[in-house]
Design goal:
Helix content is 29%, strand content 25%. With 245 residues, it is an alpha+beta fold. It has a 5-stranded mixed sheet, with no helix packed on it. The longest helix has 28 residues. This is Cation-dependent mannose-6-phosphate receptor.
């Protein structure tokens, strides 16, 4: 049995939460006068499907575009559309090709329309966000060349401060997921380690605590550090001999 290392697991979980938070917050753009556009409201957050699929194409090349605001999605049709912001689906093969990732976007505010410009190698996708007080979104696309794509979206959610992203009812926040994962890792570490020490090494009593001596030393070091800090505060001097503690 392999006993998990809690330090590595906890750090990895912290990284996941930070990445998720950073990704979400970077999708809210300032358009001036204290107003913002929340691009998260223009996407599905489940990663399974784009909010805008099979977008009508006005160019002679009748391939189909799909796009999802902020959150990555994937298509499982044998193509390369994985972790995408936008994909191009061939009407001939039915396979989807990745043309833009969420991380490659740049927001460009203009007077009557706001732009999301995605750069992926030589491929450029520009999404034109037009504020429109309508009940149903209007969207179409145009492919100018093999590497130049345009999507035109009219929506109430393209208007500043009109739409705000919220998690679905009953779903868990990032903090809640982190706590659940942290508790699961600690439980596995303690119980799994105890079972390993008991049946593999015949340990009993307190000897069944995983890395018991390491944790005792950690507690001892923490107490020494607290005592040293208190001495510095009491003497109001940094010239305290640590060896005397």
């Amino acid at each position: 049995m392999v006993v998990p290392r809690p330090g590595f697991s906890i750090c990895y979980l912290f990284i996941l939460i930070i990445q998720r938070t950073a990704s979400s917050s970077s999708c809210v753009y300032d358009v001036g006068h204290g107003q913002k556009i929340d691009i998260r409201a223009l996407g599905n957050s489940d990663g399974k499907r784009p909010k805008y699929d099979n977008i009508p194409n006005t160019s002679p090349v009748k391939n189909s575009l799909s796009w999802n605001g902020c959150f990555p999605y994937s298509k499982y049709d044998g193509g390369s559309c994985k972790g995408a912001a936008a994909c191009l689906t061939s009407t001939t093969t039915g396979q989807s090709t990745l043309i833009a990732r969420p991380s490659s976007v740049k927001f460009e505010p203009e007077e009557n329309v706001n732009l999301l410009v995605y750069h992926s190698g030589e491929t450029i996708l520009t999404v034109y966000l037009t504020c429109a007080d309508i009940d149903e979104d209007k969207i179409n696309s145009r492919q100018d060349s093999a590497t130049i794509f345009n999507i035109y979206l009219q929506s109430r959610c393209c208007c500043p401060d009109k739409c705000h992203f919220s998690t679905k009812s009953g779903s868990l926040s990032g903090g809640a997921v982190f706590v659940i994962l942290l508790v699961s890792v600690l439980f596995t570490y303690i119980v799994g380690g105890a079972l390993f020490l008991k049946y593999a090494r015949g340990a009993t009593g307190t000897d069944m605590i995983p890395h018991r001596m390491i944790w005792l030393n950690v507690v001892s070091y923490v107490l020494d550090g607290l005592r040293y800090t208190l001495l510095i505060i009491r003497q109001r001097s940094l010239n305290v001999d640590y060896q005397k503690i």
